[in-house]
Structures are given as C-alpha cells and as structure tokens.
Amino acid sequence: MIDNQQLMVLNKKPDHGMWTRVNRKNLQERSIIDYIITTEGSKKNFTNVIVDEEGALRLKGKNESDHNTITTTIKVNQAKRPKFIKKWNLNNKEGWKEFNQKLEKELSEADWKNQQSMQEKYNSFEKALKKTLAKTIGESKIRTDKPPKRQSDTIKKLKLERKRTKTTFGEACKNGTPKKKKGTKELYEKPKGTKRTDRGGRETETGEKTRRDMGRSKKEPKYHMRTKEKNQPQQRAGI
C-alpha cells in the first residue's frame, strides 16, 4: 500500500531511537511495527522524529505499554485571525447629552415588579445601561495585534546616516581627533591667524594686543575723546 500510494515512512531513520515495540518482560524481544506515514509533498513539514525508548512519554497504567511513543514536530502555516476589542466612545460629547434622558426612559420601561432578587435587578440595570450607551455614545472596534508600519528604504538610510554622524562626532569629541572634528565643531570656531584693522589703520592678528593696549587695565577705555573745557580763554600764538 505504501509503495502503491507513493507514501513516505518518517521513522525509518529517526533522529533518536528506533524500536517502536519492546516486550517489557523480555527486553530482547523488540520490533518496529508503528509508523508515521505521510505524502512526498508533506514530508518537508515534518522535523525532529523521536522514538521514546527511554519511557519518558510512555503510556502507563496498571501494566506498562509495550509500545514506545513517537513524537515529531510539524510546521503548520496558518493565518492568524485579527484580534479586536470593543471600546466605548467616551469622547462623544453630543452622545453624553442624550445619555441621561434615554437612560431614564430605559429604566422606566423595565419590569421591576416581577424582579424580586437583587441579582435580577442588577442584571436589568446593566442591560439598560449598555443599551443606552450603544444608542448614545456608541462603541468602536480596535485591533490589538495590528502589525507595525513598514518603513521605506529612504527613511532607513536617513536614520542610519544620522546614527553614524552622531557616533563619529561623539568619538571625535572624546578622543580629540582634529580630522574627525573637521566639518562639525570647526564650523562654529573662528579660524586663528585672521587679520583685522583697528581704528588707527593698523593690521593685527586676532588674539594679539596692540602696543597702545599693552599695560592698560580692562576697566579703562581704549580710546579717549578729547573735549574742550568750557569757560577757558583761548590763547593766541605769540602772547
């Protein structure tokens, strides 16, 4: 039958164990009479075939079974059903305005006289409350197992480039490497050796003081404006 139907026996060469039946009173009496049979196309879905000769999974009762348990792992590609939960629309302001009025109407129509126990009254109140909520604010279905959105290749490249730039700049600041700092920190620093012109028309390099500024305290101004003193007679030449 196996050859005619082109079937495959999986436990001919199992990953562990071989004998499927062993006489417990005479351990030398053993045989292979139990099989896992499948088709040629389904063979790839079966992995890890084990014959339990040690007896960890063997059926035991009053008398121990002569047959060893055979286990295997089967790959099953089954589509997952989406999972949803219901949630009340608590932010529905217009629905809350109608809620109190319709709730009173639902409670007045309930048959309270025939309900003697407290549990029956509670069930009626809960039913009226849910019915009113559904009519007024409503409810929405939210998918809980929604897969995350896939990012485009452009966004992935930009994130990777940003991460590399941040790492390079951090290493440059830590190690003090001038080559790595080029293009980052040096852009915000004023280059040394640039010349400037003071009011006297002299060119000096940045960071150097002129002779006129040497010895002058920081509080004193660098330049003094000359003013004429009032009520001072002017002297003529030759007097």
According to DSSP, the number of beta strands is 10
What portion of residues belong to β-strands?
15-25%
State the end-to-end CA separation: 147 Å
Shape: flat
Adjacency order of strands in the biggest sheet = 1-4
Structural class: alpha+beta
Question: What oligomeric assembly is this protein in?
Answer: single chain
How many separate helices?
A: 4
H and E string: EEEEEEEHHEHHEE
Mean pLDDT: 76
Largest sheet entry: 2 strands, antiparallel
**Helix content bin:** 25-40%
The low-pLDDT segments are 179-184, 206-214
Using only C-alpha atoms, the radius of gyration works out to: 46 Å
Question: Could you explain the architecture of this structure?
Answer:
With 239 residues, the protein is an alpha+beta fold. Helix 1 packs antiparallel against helix 2. 3% of the residues are buried.
Please provide a brief summary of the model:
This protein is of the alpha+beta class and 239 residues long.
How is the topology of this model organized?
Blueprint (H helix, E strand, L loop, with lengths): L6 E3 L11 E2 L7 E2 L5 E3 L6 E6 L18 E5 L9 E5 L4 H17 L8 H19 L2 E5 L9 H23 L2 H4 L13 E3 L5 E3 L34
Helix pairs in contact: 1-2
Index terms:
4 helices; 239 residues; two-stranded antiparallel sheet; flat; alpha+beta
